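User: Predict the structure for this protein chain, please.
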Amino acid sequence: MQPKHETFRLSELRDLVATGRVRIPDFQRSFRWTNQDVVALFDSLHHGYPIGNLLMWKREAPAQLLTVGSIDIDAPQRSDALWLVDGQQRVTSIVNAMDARSERDARFAVGYDLENACVVSTL
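Assistant: Here is the predicted structure, written as structure tokens:
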């Protein structure tokens, strides 16, 4: 199979994770970013700065309970799962900052200051 390039909107990426299509392999290190790292990522997105590519591998995946940051996902078996080989810190940050289930997790407390037109921590 030849590599291919796909572009996802942030909301599409969130939905891929929420439905269990995106999986994080066991060999990935645990999530380590702080709130400052997550705010910096969203600031880069706001300014249109490149945040790097994500490397995903399409493979089968069993039904399982997944935890992505603060979100638990009851993922069904899939023949077309996207295993996240590189980009776990970024994807976990984006998905959790956009999901209300993470509202009590300080790592993902990110907002937008309309008055000053900038990304801020909501801590």
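Strands lie at 22-23, 55-61, 64-68, 71-75, 78-86, 110-113, 118-121.
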